[in-house]
Amino acid sequence: MLFDKLETLDDLLVMQLKDLYSAEKQLVEALPQMAEAAKDGRLRRGFERHLHETERQVERLERIAKDLDVDLDGHTCVAMKGLIKEGQATMSERATDEVMDAALIAASQKIEHYEIASYGTAHHYADRLGHTQVAQLLRKSLEEEQDTDTRLNDLAKNYLNQKAM
């Protein structure tokens, strides 16, 4: 439990930030495995690019924590833990290279959609509470997640899924 009692929108914002921080730190550990499992060079490079983006998002969250004078450590995002576990199970399946790449994109998009929902919620709370700088930083991460999802979707629809057929 993060709080004895959630009483304010500020409490919810901090709860979202702690969850995002844990999620992103877990993803920093998982993305190299996903990049290694990817057979297609474009997909591998996409995972590597997203790793660098995720590292910057962790730094942004640390900056937000400093600005709000809160500690983001000490919480585990159970949802991300489950999404990563599911992705790892997928990577252990026997599959052709093309099918594995399509499966990696599917697993990645589940993660992206979780992050988009989480950043969108945190951004709204920060904006509503008048934390302008925090809202801007969260909006930047939200836009990065949306762009990553679009790139994955395009790669799947226009190339990898066809190869997997």
From TrEMBL:
Keywords: Coiled coil. Residues 44-71 form a coiled coil. It comes from the Bacteria. Gene3D superfamilies: 1.20.1260.10. Transmembrane segments: none annotated. It holds the Pfam family DUF892. InterPro entries: DUF892_YciF-like (IPR010287), Ferritin-like (IPR012347), Ferritin-like_SF (IPR009078), YciF (IPR047114). PANTHER family: PROTEIN YCIF. This is Ferritin-like domain-containing protein. It comes from Solirubrum puertoriconensis. The lineage of its organism: Bacteria, Pseudomonadati, Bacteroidota, Cytophagia, Cytophagales.
